[in-house]
Amino acid sequence: MKFAAVVAALAAGSAAAFAPSQAGRASVALQETQADLKELGPKLNPVVGYFDPLDLTNAAFWGKSDEFTIGWLRQAEIKHGRVAMAAFVGYCVQSNFHWPWAMTSAGLPFPSTDLSPPEQWDALPFAARLQIILFVGFLEIYSELTPAEGAVAGQPHYTKGGQPGKYPTFDAVPHFTPFNLYDPFGWNKNMSDADKERRLRAEINNGRLAQLGIFGFLCAQTIPGSVPALEGVVKPYSGEVMAPFPEFFQ
User: Fold this and answer.
1) Three-state SS at 12
2) DSSP string, 143-191
3) CA dihedral 113, 118, 123, 124 (to 10 degrees)
4) CA-CA distance, 119 to 142, in Å (whole number)?
5) Are 51 and 173 in contact (CB under 8 A)?
6) CB–CB of 8/129 below 8 Å?
7) N or C: more exposed end of the chain, with fewer CB within 10 A?
8) Could you read off the pLDDT of 166-189 as tens digits, one per residue?
9) pLDDT tens for residues 196-229?
10) Per-residue pLDDT tens for 190-201?
11) What is the C-alpha to C-alpha distance for residues 136 and 167, in angstroms, rounded to an integer?
């Protein structure tokens, strides 16, 4: 399916062309600690609470500080949760609906709902799959950009005091971009801090559930009998769900 290809995201062009502007006010850098996670855990799930059986928060990834590691882990969870939520909803929708118009200028239609989502991905032309991966790759690289040394604007990196999960605006793109990825219509700009915190916690919980959900679908398709509740609900798939270009993995 489309979202299985995201993990292989690539990008073209120079990241330097999208460096944050030098104008404006700098963001305040804050870094989370293990104590912050222990406080957050019960708010997310009062039954499980803080859960880190592998002690990853003290693993000092790449020889960096615990704060660096925690920022990286928090960003990873939020990002994977968002991708999983999009994948789960996409799987349900494209299993039942597809656009009625032509997909290409040559008149090729969108893959039929007779195919399962992974089969629909495989049926897309190579150029279409490549465009999707390159676009997602651009979003990934853009999210990693941080202010240049001495800059007074921009968003600190999530491993260096920035807020995990906060996607930067497109203000630095050197051409008119009418909408941002988050809150494109500005509906949430007046939301209270309490509501923002509550909704962020809900997003993490929904993302965790969606990760289980989408892999439940994929396991049921590729490992017969692995998810009894989905027997007869999803179609078997004999391809490679983690290969965005299966024609190169025969």
Assistant:
1) coil
2) HH--PPTT-SSS---TTTTPPTT-PPPSTTSSS-----SSSTT-TTTT-
3) 100
4) 30
5) no
6) no
7) C
8) 888 887 777 788 888 888 888 888
9) 899 999 999 999 999 999 999 999 999 999 999 9
10) 889 899 899 999
11) 13
